[in-house]
Write a structure and sequence with these properties.
homohexamer, alpha/beta, UDP-N-acetylmuramoyl-L-alanine:D-glutamate ligase, 11-stranded mixed sheet, 4-stranded mixed sheet, Ribokinase-like (chains A, B, C, D, E, F), 2-dehydro-3-deoxygluconokinase activity (chains A, B, C, D, E, F), kinase (chains A, B, C, D, E, F), Carb_kinase_PfkB-like (chains A, B, C, D, E, F)
């Protein structure tokens, strides 16, 4: 397969404005400025691990575009399919984030309506794009935006699939975008195209009405649809600042389940984006090594390490992730640094 | 006159997100968080000088509402007429600001479309409001928003006028909101209701097609419309970080012009909002002392001091402004502090 | 009862100067600037929950007065009974605070002697004040200042009581202000006036010589004095950064005890002011709902959430506290945010 | 002369709490923490230039003492004569400082009453101290504190003089400490002991009633009193952020005046302490080189460079000052760095 | 010409550690972290203007490599020719920078000896590189490093030239790297290969012993060597914080001189790198438009705007530079922003 | 014994550049600036506890020298034996530090090759130095630098020993400096001179091939060499942010072991330097009280408290450490502050 990109993602790029840790939106006079958005996180993280990635999105043609493009390039995501919105009311979606500290929960305010991605149109992208990547990924957030974005996403899925591209999809259910029924109805439309499916146990139960063990649930998706791989993260919240994290992956091809010991007592600095980091690691492992065990290990390691930094995505490289995996397989963890 | 408020303003409240001084939007990881909006600035500053003020606006019912209300209360602006927008797509308008440094200009990105004020409706406010203040103020920015906001503003002007309320209006022309012709057509509709009119010489010429000296221009407005007072600021930009500032006020009643020596060599830290500070000082002087000379002095002093702080509005009090006026009338300026 | 305020508190307003977290007073070049003082914290927090509050205090007539007044207004505390000290040696009390980190303890340096409140005089306040509130609150800190402040506080208690005002008192024993015997002697003078009494188990034993269970102790206060309600907080320090917190309230009227499950594993960002937050929640619950169970729930929730922010007082609103209470009654806690 | 110190100063050590530049005391949540006090500035700066210095002062025995002592040691000022105040109401004087920006003036709030130095007593210091230095310096600020501090200062002057120590005195008139008449009466008491006298032209005229040219004024002091050297700074304020600075020194011994070209267009970052820096440079030049020309050059250079940093005192060393002097004598100034 | 890159530069990448503005290296506890190095600045800035660039350098294989690569990618510089130094003593050169404020000069401490670039070897780069770009640029700094770096640079010049690549060279004389004579001897070796030559008037006189007017000097270089274009910047330092800047370019081909009005009263935030920004603009203009007038305009505009930001290089884009040029040709400058 | 210093240490002074907590070297634009180096940490901390200390090192003669000297003086370490390196390629060693957060490990990048200490020569120091202290301390880091530094260190040990000075040595094995065999061979050369030996159990086993219990290991060192005291720290890492810490000391003289309860659940803010803090406390206790129990208690307390602050060394004083010891012996720990 001679395609330019390993992964192309589609989704909304958001400006994330968060309070300093321990601060509140109602107080203070500074905000931290980051980029976010599930599919951007994933493209950036896979790019940092060394695969070639690009992202399809639509952003306003203003000063913030330079911020977005610089960051994408910094993490090796091609801006070739970034569409510039020159309309008068073009805007970048924003979300405001306030860190929690038990018993005060983290809180998020979304201001993403009317953003440029909602005007995206299939004519905005070149036909060549559809046979230019090994894998296409999007999520339930993009579908949940509804309207043009949903329509565009579904069309992309079909067109990429026609070109023999692997289709990856993460349900990523957000109650503030749509109801469970809306989500189910829409996602069931695209499941026939999906090869790699990310769905948490809770969502499988609540949104798709699944029952039984997680293993049964995963298998049932592959029985209903021509899905090859189902991955489900498993998070245990010990305290808001200590989580355990692992996942289970089911491969339909060899009818096997993949598991490993959880990363226990993860220091949670910033939990946002850890699910996306999981997807990025899993897709990297799957594409690079064609091995669900590698998908599992990279997925868990990326998710675990993501918790340790502020912002939606981790800045890392393959060497670091490999050493985290090696350490994890070895003895759990070691506190001390090498010097 | 026994009214609860001295001044009620109407306008949009904006979240202002600015880079650190010398920073760029395309770089860095922090933004400064302030509130802005011409009519909020004015209500806050008049409130700080000791008159009773309130503001009519519509804001989303989210975590940022607490930030807005706390700040309004801190500067003694009543939140009684602040309307809470509980709609799903409610949002606060945002503007991003990057400071300039010659030859790099300051730059601003507005993201105010679809904000909550655009859904404002005359039924959102109680009828009692209209006879509850001595003066009502709004600006060409509010009219320039068009749609419901414009309609609401015009209705407010009529209803306040009916109750014998003084009407104050600042043209505040913004090319990114509407064309000069649109502005002129709309503003000429409301000029018959206006008592105190703020209009710069440039705008008078470019938008209203006025000719002649500034004195002739000011007088002509009072001849065409039943305007009592016309105030025009006069700014000289020596360098982007050094301005001179003064103003000229015409009183139709006694057919007199009021002037004073400019504040020269103002240290420009942040120029945004200095025009609003002028309006606030002028309205304070006019309402408190019923004297255009006082309007001039307070207006110029408030405008001058505004340049010295970061953010849309100054934090000050009457005692400080009085001492600045005294100093200014005395000898220009004195560099040293009292100790 | 038609009184303007729900709560008036009396106490000293302090400028709190704290190091950055992990910093030391002996190092570094910045300090964080907050306001503090038990009774200010309480008035602010009750004000934020929606009741009308004012505070009696005396502050110097200098630039810091604006800081104080802005913050009071921001949290809806009336400055009507704030007395301006124009004396030459007027000053605001200061305390310096350094965060601890085991085994390094938090440390505090008080510099509150000779502050303006020590010159407070009953003639500084209008007679009308005494029949203008439903409840008056002060604490053992104010009495412990001694001299004029103590005399003023005792006089206030008497005068408010004469007007049928509820009297609330928090022992808040501070060894650096007075000895246990001095405290006991003084407080026993005012207990005959007190309706709502806050006293921890330790203080009851050490200062008042009480014995028996906490339930017996609480009841004994109501037997000796015409106290209606006794509230005692119960804190377990697991580590300096993890506390459990709950309380027990005794109502003499129906001879009942109120308790609930503790908030466990509270993330302690800043422990200062959590006792005051308890008082504010308890008084809010009591006044708003006339129900000791509500006093308990609001008290515990306010105390618990206070630990999560830097500074003497929390910035919050009723909606947030209600959701924390609901969450707490439900399942302990949930780590994830709503989105 | 075999004395341990070159210079011992006497004065109050103040904690300086300043807003960030462009910030206001009424806003924001951080303050910068520095030490200040004229005589500390002088001892520190002379210490940095390489002479041995110590300072007599009295400070509270609390956590801030470590901050003070660390800073003194960092600038090579001996803490041998620093007296620890263990009294209950011991306190360090504080001053709050807000930077100005035309037309907003810098503002200062002093909170120095009741500070530990006001309890200083001659018994606090060892008799050996009086023959242990070549020069003793204090200022009109210490005398202006009145009470014990004034009494102590006058006694020190007498005792040091008895031991053949040079006495240096800077009038440093502060209207917020005493009236001009009080200052004159007190200072005239100690002038018979003074060898090196710092007095600005304005103060000479206003406080001492001098007339004539600055040269005549300087000479007249030496005619009335056995003063050897009189130094007067000359500052021209072009704008609050641009000053010119030079000085004139009169030597009675050879009846000569010393002058040099002013440092023109000094970038004023922080003007506080530039007068003290002048004294430190002048005393250094005088003691090290026994030459009034050197006193002039070091004084002017130290004053000029002080304006360039935040805080009461400059951090520098002899090499830097020598290069500034060389540059200044050469061509005025050069913008570029050496690389 | 079908080459992959428009510009390849060769030079050392430095970690720049600067104090906060107004801070000193001897004080404080933070440093700002940037990348620097003349040839990196140039590649980054040309990359931002839209041409394809790469940089040849050698950097240590440690955590800082990720910082360097992310930044290069962010500004669109290919890391393809970045050589990783895995030696034990590999290191990145560092320079410490302290901002000046008259009369305190900016100061710089270089710690670049033994850095990885000093081990660079012609075998580190592929032969294909030499016919893969339209233009190769390096500077006297790289030659001044001596040893392997110098040898490598000279070899690169020869090899690129052999492939018909344009050779650009900026003298950029640094006295702390070599003497004028050493510089002259070495540079005269490579001048026969140079097409575009950057040399200031001062350097031409002091290092190359040129006399006559700047026009005569520029022409003489083209007469002695087969140089096509000579560009010389002209800077006037009004104060350290106000500079004027322009340049003069001589084209040998049409024997013409190009000049324009200086950018006057530039606000100097950070002067470092403005010379490199000039080179980047000039090379961009020359390569894109094949026009020395464009080289002049882009060079001057890039240099002027560079002064306005902190760090070695500007973050910008073509649209901004075009608008600065348009503004400059129009009326000098305009203080106000567009809104 | 009449010697000027209690302790002289020898080692490299490093500039420590660390990310903000939770930050990464590959991101962000600030670094924290501290000094580090095992032997500097020890001299500073013993100096703060009240003994007289000096340090032998060699540092470049540039702007950073002032930073180093100011900090040394601030913590009462004499700079008398600090050697100034005026060579062209003089440099201060640097280390970059990134905090970890499980599962992301802390990471360190050393850049200490070619630093000034590597040119140190016995002729740089005066002969008088060798009989001017009670105790000399250095570590395996200094020996591991190899070359001149190693040679100098061994010579110092011999010369100090000749003068009857106590020799203290901490193995402090660093794999990035030398191999275990190199370390063993070198250290065995100097063990015959050592009086006080610091060696962890792990190092004893891995580097020196010891077997048996820690007690047996400690004793065996004293049997093989004329060592008086062996101290070994014992650290248990619960999580990277929670450690337990204690130590065991063996005194050959009275053939006794000293132990105490560990400090449990230490809040680990910054673990770097805690081993050095142990050495400083142990040496202080030993020198001041001539008692291994005191060495143990001060060592453990200093190590424990070091974890609570950012940077290589703690800022503290004897009073604080004494209160930590008292608290520790009493009841483990107490969360609350004294007020």
């Amino acid at each position: 397969m001679d395609r330019k990109y390993d992964v192309i993602t589609l989704g909304e790029i958001l400006l994330r404005l968060s309070t300093p840790i321990n601060g509140r939106l109602a107080q203070g006079d500074t905000l931290m400025k980051h980029l976010g958005g599930a599919e951007l996180n994933i493209a950036s993280e896979i790019g940092q691990l060394g695969l070639k990635t690009a992202m399809i999105s639509k952003i306003p043609n203003n000063l913030l575009a330079a911020f977005i493009k610089n960051q994408m390039n910094a993490s090796r995501v091609s801006e070739n399919y970034l569409i510039s919105d020159t309309a008068d009311d073009s805007r970048i979606g924003v979300y405001y984030y306030e860190y929690g500290s038990y018993p005060r929960k983290p809180r998020v305010v979304y201001d993403r309506k009317h953003s440029s991605i909602n005007n995206i149109d299939i004519k905005d992208v070149p036909e060549t794009m559809f046979y230019n990547t090994r894998l296409f990924h999007t999520s339930g957030i993009t579908l949940g935006l509804g309207g043009n974005a949903q329509k565009f996403a579904i069309e992309c899925i079909r067109k990429f699939k026609e070109q023999g591209t692997l289709i990856s999809f993460d349900v990523n259910y957000r109650a503030n975008l749509w109801t469970g029924e809306e989500a189910r109805a829409c996602i069931e439309q695209i499941l026939p195209y999906v090869d790699i499916f990310f769905c948490s146990e809770d969502t499988a139960r609540l949104t798709f009405g699944k029952t039984g063990t997680i293993e049964e649930i995963q298998k049932s998706f592959c029985e209903e649809y021509p899905i090859s791989v189902v991955a489900s993260t498993e998070r245990t919240v010990i305290t808001p600042k200590k989580h355990n994290f692992t996942s289970i992956i089911y491969s339909a091809k060899n009818d096997s389940y993949y598991r490993e010991e959880p990363y226990n007592n993860i220091d949670v600095v910033d939990r946002i984006g850890s699910g996306d980091a999981y997807v990025s690691g899993a897709l990297y492992g799957y594409l690079k090594h064609k091995d669900c065990r590698k998908a599992l290990e990279y997925g868990n390691a990326m998710a675990a390490i993501k918790h340790s930094v502020i912002g939606d995505m981790i800045t890392t490289d393959l060497e670091e992730i490999d050493s985290i995996i090696a350490e994890h397989k070895n003895t759990g963890y070691h506190s001390e640094m090498n010097r």
